[in-house]
Amino acid sequence: MPRIAYVNGRYTAHADAAVHIEDRGYQFADGVYEVCEIARGYIVDSTRHLDRLDRSLRELKIASPMARQPLLTVMREVIRRNLVENGLVYLQVTRGVAPRDHAFPADTKPSLVITAKRIDPLGGIKRAESGIKVITVAENRWERVDIKSVGLLPNVLAKQQAKEAGAQEAWFVDPDGTVKEGASTNAWIITKDGVLVTRPADTGILRGVTRTTVLDIIKKHGLSIEERPFTVEEAYDAREAFITSATTLVTPVVTIDDRSIANGHPGSIASSLRQAFFDIAEKIKA
Ligand code: PLP
């Protein structure tokens, strides 16, 4: 069955879907994106994802391409046309097409692309059962990583470095030795005293939607949580470590820079947070 993409008002064959060469996303990475998980026929945490999309657009002064309800209708239609029960729906909004000039063009319509893809949930389950490897890399991104911008070159390079090192994620580390976040995930540890630790989302990281929903689970279960920066040394010494994102949910980390975390097996708290996630997260029928 051919995949279908939505591009600026049209449903087209994914293989032929294209944007103009002067789209500002292509020319300047002048755009933002969102990714929602689709699980068991539901779109997960759509309100938080679309709220963050609105925020990213506002921060960059890009007009909203569509109101929330029609946007959800298009998302559902793309999901339906691609027969996705489990997978991802991806939205990208750029400032639109205009003659190449750095400053904002006047009266340009934003571009909107929506795609959906099927993913076998077994892959994620297997990765969660074995745990993943992480490497640390020096932070080299701009300061506004709280905006979910399509300007992801440092993230791409970090992920490639991880892949070449036989790892699945790279954690950006500030000059003071504290961990920021992964190339496409948020970073967490659990200390020897059983305290969950993750960096505050006010500056320096993307406020992950999965992170926020995991915080809901932690509060509901009365677990100890500290939102503060943690160092790489603390992470090496942790009882557990894990990552969160819409694409990985909660996935345990068993190795950081080739050092085993605790006994080198996925931790029980990370595994139970993963189990609890679907029930607690917001779900709307796809
Ligand atoms: N941090 C970065 C840099 C990301 O790119 C992502 C997701 O793409 C996340 C964190 C996790 O965010 P979410 O849980 O909303 O998927």
TrEMBL record:
Domain of life, per lineage: Bacteria
Q: Does the keyword Signal apply?
A: no
Cofactor(s) named in the record: pyridoxal 5'-phosphate
Q: Per UniProt, which keywords does this protein have?
A: Amino-acid biosynthesis, Branched-chain amino acid biosynthesis, Pyridoxal phosphate
User: Mind telling me which Gene3D superfamilies this protein's record contains?
Assistant: 3.30.470.10, D-amino Acid Aminotransferase, subunit A, domain 2 (3.20.10.10)
Q: In which pathway does it act?
A: Amino-acid biosynthesis; L-valine biosynthesis; L-valine from pyruvate: step 4/4; Amino-acid biosynthesis; L-isoleucine biosynthesis; L-isoleucine from 2-oxobutanoate: step 4/4; Amino-acid biosynthesis; L-leucine biosynthesis; L-leucine from 3-methyl-2-oxobutanoate: step 4/4
Question: What GO terms fall under cellular component here?
Answer: cytosol
An MF annotation (GO) of this entry: branched-chain-amino-acid transaminase activity
GO BP terms in the entry:
amino acid biosynthetic process; branched-chain amino acid biosynthetic process
Q: List the catalysed reactions.
A: L-valine + 2-oxoglutarate = 3-methyl-2-oxobutanoate + L-glutamate; L-leucine + 2-oxoglutarate = 4-methyl-2-oxopentanoate + L-glutamate; L-isoleucine + 2-oxoglutarate = (S)-3-methyl-2-oxopentanoate + L-glutamate
Q: What is its EC number?
A: 2.6.1.42
- Say what the protein does: Acts on leucine, isoleucine and valine.
Similarity field: Belongs to the class-IV pyridoxal-phosphate-dependent aminotransferase family.
Q: Which NCBIfam families match?
A: PRK06680.1
Name this protein carries in UniProt: Probable branched-chain-amino-acid aminotransferase
